[in-house]
Amino acid sequence: MTLPLRWGRRLLPVSAVLAFLGLWQWSAGHYPPDQLPSPLDVAAGFRELTESGALFEHIRISLLRFATAYGLAAAVAIPLGLLLGGYAPAGRACDPLLQLLRPISPIAWFPLAVLWFGIGNPPAIFIIFLAAFFPILLATISGVRDVEPLHLKVASNFGAGRVFTFVAVVLPAAFPHVMVGLHIALGTAWIHLVAGEMLGAQSGLGYLIVDARNFLRTDLIIAGMLLVGALGLAINGAMRRAEGVVRRRWGAV
Amino acid sequence: MGGIKIRVDDVTVRYVDAAGHAHVPLDRVSLNIRAGEFLCLLGPSGCGKTTLLNLLAGFLRPTSGSVSIDGAEVTRPDPRHVTLFQEYGLYPWRTVLGNVLFGLQAQRVERAEGERRARAALDLVGLGDAARRFPHQLSGGMKQRVALARALVVEPDVLFMDEPFGALDTFTRGRLQDELRRIRRDRKPTIVFVTHDIDEAAYLGDRVAVMATHPGRIAALLDFPADTQFSRESARFQERRAKVYAAVREAFGEDEPTEDEIEPPVAESPLQELAAL
Ligand SMILES: Nc1ncnc2c1ncn2[C@@H]1O[C@H](COP(=O)(O)OP(=O)(O)OP(=O)(O)O)[C@@H](O)[C@H]1O
Ligand SMILES: [Mg+2]
Question: Which long-range contacts (C-beta less than 8 Å, at least 24 apart) are formed by A218-221?
């Protein structure tokens, strides 16, 4: 009885993808390739990109920008979150400001990003940074605030000082929350990578898509989009594995 | 048995809720606890047992009255008086050994010395082999043993225990009760033990304070001869049980507390049932 079930589990998503490709191929027959290229056209465009070698350079640069911005966001947001969560007056003071800034889409920062940072690398990094910053910050703050009261009670019973309590109880207790924030931030930041790279950058996956549009190479646009999706999927998978390790180690089932 | 260790003098705890109603979990409670004795606080849910224990342990200040230990007023928690909680309060990111080391690290005990003491404490509670495991890999009984080792390793002279075995099955609970008796014979700490289990109070307590609700107070104080040798099958245990049961009935009249809080004194203890299998 388990055999058909397991087959079904594999079979269903595979057939969904095949059906999607079939539908796409069929629809593409009704439009000029400039508007809607077929999957085969896209595959050919993809081969063209890999053969020239330019693709890997674009991927490398995008990943580098992404890592820089994401790393910067984590490096700023985690300590700041620990401060705002751990020191109540600071948290109360900054809370309204955070609530005000948080709902503003990184896209709305585009004009300022260009005004402040010009074009190229810096505005792209700035946009990705913004996209990653708030999820990490808010998760860290709530992680620190949500430490089990019993865990703090035990620490105070054993005469633990403020520093020891922070290092030995608050930090490790907040850690899984910070991981969740990092995971969410990974997704939102990756989504904004393409947007950030459309701000006058001369390289990267976002540039690849903009550049293809300028030459009406719809096949390359879609190849670039699919590549962004696939890379995002891979990064997310790696993150999920890291989070799983943390959760097991922290005993959260 | 030594002199007075803990003095509770005319203590009241009052809360006024948002609607302006006053709640009085403890109303003018006075109690002297002797050095080295095992005192059980027995009572139904909501009678202020935890509130009283939190006062003794320094987690809570009274609205009026005072609590002192060794002649000094209790104003905050103190590592010489360690509390065990029903929910254990183990740190899930630390190993068993790491948890036992916690109190020693907080007090900056040197690493090698701390590890030696922690391992000895784990041996004492029978968990020498589980040192490298994490709390989520342990049963409830093992978790409470770790918490006990973590408390004992700092060599406290008072143990406060808030229904420490309340979440355990009867077999495990019986075993831990016996271990607590043994540890008590070795270490001679003063123990204040909260429970709503009449058997547990009769089996462990040198004295049993029966508490009543609305307002929370001590309704009766039973004083038994110190004895940690009698078994659950002994006539002495049955006698103690009957006395505690009678005091509870007197404190609550015929209708309170409800049946599931009190078993008739003739029922066999679960360990006897286990032995009969
Ligand atoms: N912070 C508080 N504010 C208002 N009322 C409180 C507060 N803390 C405790 N109480 C009340 O005090 C009473 C006694 O509570 P306590 O936790 O001491 O009971 P308990 O005897 O330990 O009960 P249980 O066996 O269920 O643990 C309860 O009625 C509770 O509602
Ligand atoms: Mg309680």
Answer: A218/A33, A218/A34, A218/A35, A218/A36, A218/A37, A219/A33, A219/A37, A219/A41, A219/A42, A219/A44, A219/A45, A220/A45, A220/A48, A220/A49
